[in-house]
């Protein structure tokens, strides 16, 4: 089926926010065009179920972090990865 993330384009433009509440902080983040990680740039995905699970896993990570009151940046530092990467993982765009 056509990739639901990039709608078959193979790339997706993502606003990577540095704050959790980016709506309030507006510009504090960056807009990046990335190879779509759901489909690996092919524009189609074979396994929708795996994609859904990855998205759910990311959401759980984000909820857990928020319940501890930890910021994206602090959590990323603790895990030894960049805030950008953690943001992507939490959005289900990368495997953790
Ligand atoms: Zn895609």
Bound molecules: zinc ion
Q: What is the residue-averaged pLDDT?
A: 83
- Main-sheet strand order equals 1-2
Please, what is the oligomeric state?
single chain
Major pleated sheet: 2 strands, antiparallel
* Record field, number of beta strands: 2
Structural class designation? alpha+beta
Present the secondary structure layout.
Blueprint lengths: L10 E7 L4 H4 L3 E7 L12 H20 L4 H8 L3 H8 L6
Helix pairs in contact: 3-4
This protein binds zinc ion.
Zinc ion binds next to loops.
Your description of this structure?
With 96 residues, the protein is of the alpha+beta class. It folds into two domains: 1-15 and 30-46, no CATH class; 50-96, no CATH class. Helices cover 42% and strands 15% of the residues. The protein has helices at residues 22-25, 48-67, 72-79, 83-90; strands spanning 11-17, 29-35. It is globular, with a radius of gyration of 14 Å. The chain starts with 10 loop residues before the first strand and ends in a 6-residue tail after the last helix. Bound molecules: zinc ion. Zinc ion (ZN) is lined by residues 3, 5-6, 36, 38-39, 43.
């Amino acid at each position: 089926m056509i990739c639901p993330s990039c709608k078959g384009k193979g790339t997706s433009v993502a606003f990577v926010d540095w704050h959790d509440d980016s709506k309030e902080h507006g510009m504090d983040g960056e807009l990046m065009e990335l190879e779509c990680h759901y489909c690996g740039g092919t524009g189609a995905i074979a396994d929708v179920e795996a994609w859904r699970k990855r998205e759910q896993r990311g959401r759980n990570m984000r909820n857990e972090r928020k319940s501890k009151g930890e910021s994206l940046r602090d959590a990323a530092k603790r895990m030894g990865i960049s805030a950008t990467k953690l943001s992507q993982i939490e959005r289900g765009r990368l495997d953790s």
